[in-house]
Amino acid sequence: MPQSLSTVVPRLLTLRAGPFALDLAPEIGGAIVGFRTDWSGGVDLMRRTPEAALAARDVRLAGSYALVPYSNRMRECTLQFAGRRHRLAPNFGSHPHSIHGNGWQRAWEVESADAANASFVLDHTAKDILSSEWPFAYHARQRYALDARGLTVGLEIVNTGDGPMPAGFGLHPFFPRAAGTRLTASTASVWRNDEAMMPVALDPVPPAWNFAEGRLVAPLAVDNCFAGWNGAVQIDWPEWGIRLDMTADPVFGHLVVFVPPGKSHFCVEPVSNCNDGMNLMARGRSDTGVVVLEPGGALSGSVTFAFSRAETGGAE
Fold first, then answer.
1. Assigned domain for 47 exists
2. Angstrom distance (rounded) from CA 136 to CA 164
3. Does 58 fall in a domain?
4. Would you say 291 and 166 are in contact if contact means Cβ atoms under 8 Å apart?
5. Into how many domains does the chain fold?
6. Cβ 227 vs Cβ 253: under 8 Å
7. What is the DSSP string of the chain?
8. Cα–Cα nearest to 316, from 144, 176, 117, 150
9. 125 Cβ neighbours under 8 A, 6+ residues apart
10. 57 domain-assigned
11. In a domain, 142, yes or no
12. What CATH number does residue 265 fall under?
């Protein structure tokens, strides 16, 4: 990661509204490192980041982070765009592909903050381009707004270079996983992966991954990008009597579902582009969700996480 490691826990911002508290780490990807409610005696709504991971600036153990300027994997750390081949710096240990862009591994600046709202910005400049993290200049913004129903996260990316730039974005929340956790979502198709976990075919959703009527998360083993998402997700935790209704703007046309075996968390990620979407676009596909921004052009959208208590049937 670009930052040097430190034994000092970085500055956190805590937002509060209604029954919710949200801990943010601007220096660690502008990430969520704690999100909890006082319902049911106190429940973590996203993965809580251990203090040792905070001190190490290890964003991989955050509760959620932004994916800019693209979502998920880029095959063999290579970007094909406008007839040119760009080599990207490896950013995930020994993993052969670059992943999630570079915003999640950068420190963000606090643009504004109050009791229930915060805005962070990141400038990837011509100087940063030399690092090979990303070959185009951009400005990005994350907005967090907490209220009595839950959280809204806004994302924006602006091309600050002098030529066109391919762009995408998304969110990568890690949710708690219990025996009764249930996921409901409607998607039209799914990208099948090869042995390198890269997309090779867009197929109809098989019955085992059809979440339209709801499906228990615990038995699943999946790490795939779904297309034709209608922008709505419901997650139920009957153990705590809590329900999440996640809704996203239409720009988030894809949904990554990641259920790692043996872990206490799972991920449901609203994203704009499919995995390796920029390289697929370079090979002629028009359904990747990748947007080409002209100089000064912007991509923006928001995702809302609205929580309710199942026993009352409504948000509080």
1. no
2. 9
3. no
4. yes
5. 1
6. yes
7. --SPP-SSPPP-EEEEETTEEEEEETTTTTEEEEEEESGGG-EESSPPPPHHHHHTT-GGGSSB-EEBS--SEEGGGEEEETTEEEEPPP-STT-SSEESBSGGGS--EEEEE-SSEEEEEEEE-HHHHTTTS-SS-EEEEEEEEEETTEEEEEEEEEE-SSS-EEE--EE--EEE--TT-EEEE--SEEEEE-TTS-EEEEEEPPGGG--TT-EESTT--EEEEEES--SEEEEEETTTTEEEEEEE-TT--EEEEEE-TT-SEEEEEEESS-TTHHHHHHTT-S-S--EEEPTT-EEEEEEEEEEEETTTTEE-
8. 150
9. 137, 160
10. no
11. yes
12. 2.70.98.10
Splitting the chain (316 residues) into consecutive groups of 10 residues, what average pLDDT does each group show? 54 97 98 97 97 95 98 96 95 92 97 98 91 95 98 98 98 97 98 94 96 96 97 98 98 98 96 98 97 98 96 42
User: What whole-number distance in Å separates Cα of residue 74 and Cα of residue 151?
Assistant: 29
Is the separation of the CB atoms in 66 and 104 below 8 Å?
yes
The answer to pTM > 0.70 is yes
Task: Give me the domain span that covers residue 248.
Answer: 65-315
Q: Which residues pair with 298 in a beta bridge?
A: 158
| Cβ(236)–Cβ(245) below 8 Å | no
State how far the alpha carbon of 220 is from the alpha carbons of 205, 208, 232, 283, in Å: 14, 8, 20, 32
